[in-house]
Amino acid sequence: MKRMGMIFRAKANKALDRAEDPRETLDYSYQKQLELLQKVRRGVADVATSRKRLELQLNQLQGQSSKLEDQGRKALALGREDLAREALSRRAALQQQVSDLETQHQTLQGEEEKLTLAAQRLQAKVDAFRTKKETIKATYTAAQAQTRIGEAFSGISEEMGDVGMAIQRAEDKTAQLQARAGAIDELLASGALDDPTGMAKDDITAELDRLSGGSDVELELQRMKAELAGGSAPKQAIEGGDGGQGASRAEQERPRFDKQ
User: How far apart are the first and last CA of the chain?
Assistant: First the structure.
């Protein structure tokens, strides 16, 4: 079972490797980094919003504290010490809230600075990855095109292999037809097959053709011997058509023409 599982994983990995396009993988990774950068930016915005809200509360509490202080002074000036004491007590409670809010404000401000710095670093990383991604994609595309061109020139690509096989099959069929046509011609010439058109050669015609072909060979052989020997007599004999017998026949027939 372990072996079967290993074989299955190996085949699946091989299939995935063939289906994987590095350019698509790089684009997907870049998209994920952009999504992460967007989340960090939203976090910075959320922290900045909270900080701003604390600042508004601080301003409001400080305004109330100043107002209570003025009211205490006025009450004390009018001889209402009890009212002045109450105003100052309320102001002290507000000051405690202001102190707590200021602590929270400093904490949020620190978090905002950290997130802002992280967002800037992540932005730089994303920009660098984008440049590298485009460089790798361009290099991969060029290498892929170069490989396809090389495969096309060498004939090992799938498309060119199909073309080569088609050409080979066409050549094989052409050679087979030529061989079949030659065989049929030989069978017709030998009389083994009948010509349905009625134009088959009889035995005398076939024999005459054979002798004629042999005579042509003999004449060509004599011509070549004459050229090698450098003599003219054999050549004249060859041009006479029967190896010297044509001249004697002409001499025998000339007196006959003279008598006529």
Answer: 115
